[in-house]
Design a protein that fits this description.
Length: 371
């Protein structure tokens, strides 16, 4: 059962198409600031509860990023791994048609698990509105670019700026700062690239095959070359370390950028990082976050640190250019991270709680001025 409170959800839509067997869910949590924005995930076990929780997370993320977007999310109940691309397209198309009446006025889609550029193209074509989704291919529209590529590294760029602000707050110069990054994927590679160009030492990173370590800083260029040909960081000449030890290294900054709940009851007491920047979504529970905060670890939560992706979606939604993405991410992530850190210091609260307070204030202010 989805619980309801003063923030939402405003609308829960469940759709079914007998012809294709498509079963879908849309939860529009809150549209005070604008149409609900959140990706579509395709999973066999996706439920209304899960979609509602994710939609709520988007309400806070979009409000804190200071975007004119509300919070929403959707799910398609299907196992992508067992579907042919043709069948998957049919299901995505049926879903897009079924929710036509709420897109893009109340809901704007985007890619999430098992959804990528191609599926967003299928979605907008079936939906009939180019504004019904972001994450579209760059060359979808004739004569102008109406999609912003994932390869731009928007989220990693935002993580990089959240890291710079946090290092400054802690009085640690970026040049020579020791950083460990779990997950050398889209978020991790770009964060590593920007930080190493500023002189930070990326001393460890990992992927699904394992982790590598170099006390003097990894050769990030070489790791990027290996990744670009589809290889693993473990194929480099760097020293291999057990993947799980990445969370326990003596570093200035730890950036979890792959999986959920990786910092947990088993390893939290061994965390030695001064700062944790949550590149991944929910890399730890709030309870673990509280414990680490009490130990003096500065944690920039996911909904602040990884908002670069949704800021890029906003630029795409308003028809902006690729070149406008990075400046806007910087303009939003830097002051928002500073505001969160200042409030957290003033009130002695966790950055997460300070961020939630600011997000709620933005919603309440917008409500006051809406008719
Ligand atoms: P990705 O698939 O590009 O990269 C994930 C990386 O994690 C890969 O290198 C993979 O090998 C690695 N990995 C998988 N299992 C691992 C393991 N056991 N140990 C270490 N590494 C492992 O994904 P991404 O887009 O970089 O997303 C990473 C995280 O960031 C996810 O939690 C995602 O929800 C979150 N996020 C991503 C974006 C975005 O725009 N990409 C936006 C917001 C949040």
């Amino acid at each position: 059962m989805v619980t309801h409170d003063e923030w939402g959800p405003e609308k829960i839509i469940q759709v079914y198409d007998a012809k294709t067997g498509m079963k879908g869910i849309v939860v529009v949590d809150n549209t005070t600031l604008g149409p609900g924005k959140g990706g579509i995930r395709m999973l066999p076990e996706v439920s209304v509860d899960e979609v509602a929780a994710l939609a709520r997370a988007m309400t806070w993320k979009n409000a804190l990023a200071d975007l004119p977007f509300g919070g929403a999310k959707s799910g398609i109940v299907a196992d992508s791994k067992t579907l042919t691309q043709e069948k998957k397209d049919e299901i995505v198309g049926a879903f897009a048609k079924a929710i036509r009446n709420v897109c893009p006025t109340m809901y704007i889609a985007g890619p999430d698990m098992y959804m990528a550029e191609h599926e967003m193209e299928v979605f907008v074509k079936a939906n009939g509105s180019i504004k019904s989704a972001t994450g579209k291919p760059k060359d979808l529209c004739e004569g102008y670019s109406c999609g912003i590529p994932h390869e731009l590294g928007s989220t990693g760029f935002g993580v990089y700026h959240a890291t710079l602000v946090s290092l400054k707050h802690f009085g640690i110069p970026v040049k020579g700062a020791k950083i460990a990054i779990e997950g050398f994927g889209n978020v991790g590679t770009f964060a590593a690239d920007f930080l190493s160009k500023d002189g930070a030492k990326i001393i460890a990173t990992s992927d699904s095959k394992g982790a590598v370590y170099n006390e003097n800083g990894l050769d990030v260029r070489e790791l990027l070359r290996i990744k670009s040909r589809g290889g693993s960081v473990t194929e480099s000449n760097e020293k291999k370390i057990p993947a799980e030890s990445i969370f326990e290294l003596d570093v200035d900054v730890l950036i979890p950028a792959a999986r959920a709940y990786v910092i947990n009851e088993k390893n939290a007491h061994n965390v030695r990082a001064k700062i944790i920047i949550e590149g991944a979504n929910i890399p730890m529970t709030i309870e673990i976050e509280k414990k680490l905060h009490q130990k003096g670890v500065l944690i920039i939560p996911d909904f602040i640190a990884n908002a670069g992706g949704v800021i890029s979606s906003y630029v795409e939604h308003i028809g902006g250019k690729t070149e406008e993405v990075f400046p806007m991410i910087e303009r939003k992530i830097v002051p928002n991270t500073i505001a969160v850190l200042e409030r957290s210091k003033q009130k002695g609260m966790m950055p997460r709680d300070a961020g939630m307070e600011i997000a709620k204030e933005r919603l309440l202010n917008a409500k006051r001025f809406s008719v």
